[in-house]
Amino acid sequence: MQLRYSFRLYPNGPQRCALARAFGCARVVYNDALRTREDARAAGLPFVPSGVLSKALTEAKKTPERSWLGEVSAVVLQQSLRDLDAAYRNFFDGLKGKRLRMGAPRLKSRKDHRQAIRFTANARWSVTTGGDLALPKIGDVRVKWSRRLPSVPSTVTVVQDASGRYFASFVVETDPADDLTRMPETDAVVGIDLGLTHFAILSDGTKIDSPRFLRRAEKRLKKAQQALSRKAKGSKNREKARVKVARAHGRVADARREFHHQLSTKVIRENQAVAVEDLAVKGLARTRLAKSVHDAGWSQFVTMLEYKAARYGRAFHKIGRFEPTSQLCSHCGVQDGPKPLGVRAWTCGACGAVLDRDINAAVNVAMAAGLAVTACRARVRPEHVPAQREEAGTHRDGQPTVAGIPGP
Fold first, then answer.
1. Which of 94, 132, 196, 395 lies at a 20 to 30 A Cα distance from 291?
2. Confidence (pLDDT) at 156
3. H or E stretch including 74?
4. Closest by CA position to 226, among listed 238, 215, 213
């Protein structure tokens, strides 16, 4: 399984200039190749293949207008062409229905706040004995190593984010046998219901509060954004204020990502099978709850659960978004219709159990995925229900069952 390991880079002044030059050259090559293909499309000509673009790049280096392209590694420029091929491939696959629809490739701007270049093994990059990252035509860049790489990386991508930080992203191949030994053996299964008041509610009754990183940082972000709006456009002070805003947002994103990593690893470690609901995040992001939905970051958390389950040999299930998990009684299986969001506990009219809305939904998520979970924790408290006229005594015969769980 291929994974990415990211580490912080600390380039010095000349190295930052060299990286900026590499970012600019890669952007120019990408835009030139995109214009060539778009001009051919407008003229009714066939799609220009990658080989023709590569030869055109080699010839462009010999011209006075593009001779400065030779100041950076040739691998960086070729990988920029590969990025354009990937953008077109994703676009065409979206039109064919093989993946989600994506827009056509667009020109890159030098004002983009995120820049990236990629080095493959052909570039002869390496990690020095002192722990620095040796990049061709850039130099030995200092790296903050936070963990050990599981294997020799195949590629490294140098990224500059909006706040001006530099990162090295390594692609490594993990050992499946070694990954399986890192997780303890367990037979536990769990269903997860994602929410806003509580970020995650597990079918065993555990509730994880939502950290609300963005909400807690709103005051600091507001002051930084107000200061940015007062600066003259194009001035150096405006650029400094923009970096402050980007750093504030970066701290929020980093804290949210760390929370998702810790929680997803804990869930995968403690359970053999995990079930979640396929939420319509794009639809919810168009409602009045949009800020809270984006602050929660459900999609990122579910993605982490999915790839960690595949890595460590756990089972991952995703049920349909139209499953009535909040309408079914997890104890007897009776569906009594939708309920307003303000109703956090409800009484089943069939069996008389008073159910916590979120825990009951988590149990139903697990049961819809075919996991054998118990519904006993979904009940908040038992409630006495008068016997029906057709019942005689207190026998339990004839009660409905759901997934092998007997009724009351």
1. 94
2. 95
3. helix 74-96
4. 238
C-beta separation of 132 from 140 below 8 A: yes
What token pair was written down for 145?
């190593």
Does residue 204 have an active-site annotation?
A: no
**Is 277 one of the annotated active-site residues of the chain?**
yes
331-370-322 Cα angle (round to 5): 80
Cβ neighbours, 10 Å, residue 58:
13
CB 214 within 8 A of CB 292: no
Identified catalytic residue from 83, 204, 277, 295: 277
Q: Evaluate whether 149 touches 104 at the Cβ level (below 8 Å).
A: no
372 against 392, higher pLDDT: 372
> Taking Cα atoms as reference points, which of 8, 4, 7 lies closest to residue 153?
4
Kindly name the residue from 32, 83, 204, 358 that is annotated as catalytic: 358
| Cα distance between residue 36 and residue 28, in whole Å | 12
The pLDDT tens digits of the residues spanning 39-97 come to 999 999 999 999 999 999 999 999 999 999 999 999 999 999 999 999 999 999 999 99
Which residues are CB-contacts of 118 (< 8 A; sequence separation ≥ 6)? 75, 76, 79, 83, 155, 156, 157, 158
10 Å Cβ neighbour count for 373? 25
Place of tokens 């303890």: 184
Q: Which amino acid is at 104?
A: A
Q: What is the pLDDT of residues 160-202, one digit of tens each?
A: 999 999 999 999 998 888 888 888 998 899 999 998 989 999 9
Q: Residue 160 and residue 27: Cα distance in Å, rounded? A: 14
Helix H or strand E encompassing 9: strand 2-10
Strands (E), 92-249: 115-119, 126-127, 133-135, 139-144, 155-160, 166-173, 189-194, 198-202, 207-209
Whether residue 112 lies in the annotated active site: no
Considering the candidates 193, 204, 295, 356, report the single residue annotated as catalytic: 193
Measured at the CA of 328, the angle between CA 326 and CA 329, to 5 degrees, comes to 115
Using a cut of 0.85, tell me whether the model's pTM lies above it.
no
- Tell me the residue length of the chain: 408
Closest CA to 166 of 250, 108, 92, 232: 250
194-246 pLDDT, tens digit each: 989 899 999 888 999 999 999 999 999 999 999 999 999 999 999 999 999 99
pLDDT category, 372, cuts 50, 70, 90?
Answer: low
Average pLDDT of every residue of the chain: 87
Q: What's the DSSP call for residue 331?
A: T
Q: Please report which residue ranges of 148-235 form alpha helices under DSSP H.
A: 176-181, 213-216, 218-229
